[in-house]
Each structure stands twice: as structure tokens, then as C-alpha cells.
């Protein structure tokens, strides 16, 4: 399954990349499983996407939960919660 992964704000800064194409050997994957797989790649990824860190996720420009099932050719965006005043 081919996915486009985008990273924003502090996650992008930690990883040093804004976007990547990813090919996963599975017909579908949940957002939580994808995040775990990405975090397991290296120390930088583990820090940026670790479990317990507040991270928002959008799939194809819609906010989703960790149990959302990602399918072929989706765009998945990871970003920290936004605050402001």
C-alpha cells in the first residue's frame, strides 16, 4: 500500500523532513499502527512520534482517531496540537 506521509511544525523539525512516500506491505493499517511503525524506525522518529506525545492526525485532510483505517493512496498528516490566543 502506497501512502504519502506529511509532518508539520515541531514533528517536521525533529525529523528533518516535511513529506515522504511510504510503501507498506499491508492492504490496510490503523493510524495507531502506522504511527508505531514509523516511531520504530530510529531514535528521531521515536522521539517525534512516541506514544503518549500529543499528536493530531489527518487522513486525506480530515481529522481522524487512532483507530481510523488507512487505505491505499491516502495522505496522512502528523502534527502537534495547535495552541494560540
Superfamily (CATH H level) name: Beta-grasp domain
Distance between the termini: 40 Å
Q: Write down the CATH class.
A: Alpha Beta
* CATH fold annotation: Ubiquitin-like (UB roll)
> What share of residues is helical?
25-40%
Largest sheet, spatial ordering of strands: 2-1-7-4-5
What series of H and E elements makes up the topology?
Answer: EHEEHHEEEE
- The name of the CATH architecture is Roll
Question: Unreliable segments (pLDDT under 50, ≥5 consecutive)?
Answer: none
Largest sheet: 5 strands, mixed
* Rg (CA only): 12 Å
Verbal overview:
By secondary structure, the protein is of the alpha+beta class. It is 27% helix and 32% strand. It has helices at residues 9-15, 31-39, 43-49; strands at residues 2-7, 19-23, 29-30, 56-59, 62-63, 69-70, 74-79. It starts with a strand and ends in a 6-residue tail after the last strand.
Write the layout of secondary structure elements.
Elements: E1 2-7, H1 9-15, E2 19-23, E3 29-30, H2 31-39, H3 43-49, E4 56-59, E5 62-63, E6 69-70, E7 74-79
Parallel strand pairs: 1-7
Antiparallel strand pairs: 1-2, 3-6, 4-5, 4-7
Helix pairs in contact: 1-3, 2-3
Briefly characterize the structure:
With 85 residues, the chain is α+β, with helices and mostly antiparallel strands.
Descriptive labels:
single chain; 85 residues; Ubiquitin-like (UB roll); five-stranded mixed beta sheet; 27% helix
Amino acid at each position: 500500500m502506497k501512502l504519502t506521509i506529511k509532518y508539520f511544525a515541531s514533528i517536521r523539525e525533529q525529523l528533518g523532513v516535511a513529506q515522504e512516500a511510504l510503501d507498506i506491505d499491508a492492504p490496510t493499517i490503523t493510524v495507531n499502527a502506522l504511527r508505531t511503525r514509523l516511531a520504530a524506525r530510529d531514535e528521531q522518529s521515536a522521539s517525534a512520534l512516541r506514544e503518549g506525545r500529543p499528536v493530531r492526525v489527518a487522513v486525506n485532510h480530515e481529522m481522524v482517531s487512532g483507530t481510523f483505517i488507512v487505505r491505499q493512496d491516502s495522505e496522512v498528516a502528523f502534527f502537534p496540537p495547535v495552541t494560540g490566543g
